Amino acid sequence: MKICTVVGIRHSGKTTVVTSLVSELKKRGYKVATVKSIFCPTFSLDKKGSNTDKHRQAGAEIVVAKAKYSTAFMYSNPLSDDEIFSKADNVDFLILEGNYGVKVPRIVCAHENNDASFRINDETIAVSGVFANKNIKEYQGIKVINALENINELADVVEKIPEVTLPVDKLELPSEVSEFCKHNCNHHKVCKDDEAVKEELEVENSKVKHIFLTGEKKIGKSTLLNKIVERLEEPYSGYQTRPYEIEGHLKGYYFHSIKEREEFENDCPISVRIKKQGNFPVFETFENLGVETLKDSLADNDILIADELGKLERKAEKFQEQFFRNLKNQRMILGVIQKTKAAFLDEILKRKDVKVYEVTMENRDFLEDEIVQNIKNLGIKIK
């Protein structure tokens, strides 16, 4: 069995790298297993008060939940890495996510240089995740590989790692990981073992407060969003991406801030179309006007309109970081997300506080009322 670990800061694309690797290795005929490390000490797959929880509370060392399409084994005590690895000895590859404590080949995901440097060690075989959106091929002598655009290359690297013999050598956890709940965990209040606080936080985290539309090109996503925005009775701000043409020919897109700005400060290009080669992004617009627009909307406590998010922002790191801050702190975001593959978009779509509606020919005429009702349920004033 070959073991590889994928590590990195939050929202750096670890899960995207893991899932892309699993899919590619499966295509090559390998058996693959994964292990996700979770650092919050109160995390449990089981739900308090469920039948399986009652089995565990009664003293069962192992509880098995057998469903029609899946089976889950739950142990009363945590297993060591080697104990877990030994249970996957019938697979060809075991991909770990977030495990810093074992001396195995490592893929580092990051946003900035400092994030990557902190996690690179002698076992590092590649740098990937959001960091791979930078226009560089190597960092500190290590290959930088985009898992979405060049998964074949990354899988080739992983395919060549050596077989592992148990027990696996251990590494000391970085201090920021070993004290994750104390300083960084979003669920730090749960760590107080206060059941009332835990239940309150679970309800809080289950609330959807951001709504995004997605769908095929030209299906009417922005048209539907504009209809909803027109019905808002509360302050909103944000941006739209608009096409610009010369003599009837599409020449690219520009960033329009909804909030009033000086003429020379608004309507800046975000892409330029060159013949038949396609649109070439202008990242500086996202990193300057884009970041400023997001910050202003958050500071004014407005509803943020984001029309739209797509692959043009894939290397706009400051814009991405600010957008995640807005997701965490903004009272509500209404937006459009392109139906395309990008680590940045994947991280948004899998958030529990995000609701995504796919616009189709069949539902686009009646979807407006459903979304408006959901917005009302969130306490937002809307006609």
From TrEMBL:
Signal peptide start-end: none
InterPro entries cross-referenced by the UniProt entry: MGD_biosynthesis_adapter, MobB_dom, Nuc-triphosphatase_THEP1, P-loop_NTPase
UniProt domain Molybdopterin-guanine dinucleotide biosynthesis protein B (MobB): residue ranges: 4-126
One Pfam family linked to the record: NTPase_1
SUPFAM superfamilies in the record: P-loop containing nucleoside triphosphate hydrolases
GO molecular function, one term: ribonucleoside triphosphate phosphatase activity
GO BP annotations, alphabetical order: Mo-molybdopterin cofactor biosynthetic process
NCBIfam families: mobB
Name of this chain's protein: Molybdopterin-guanine dinucleotide biosynthesis protein MobB
Lineage: Bacteria, Bacillati, Bacillota, Clostridia, Lachnospirales
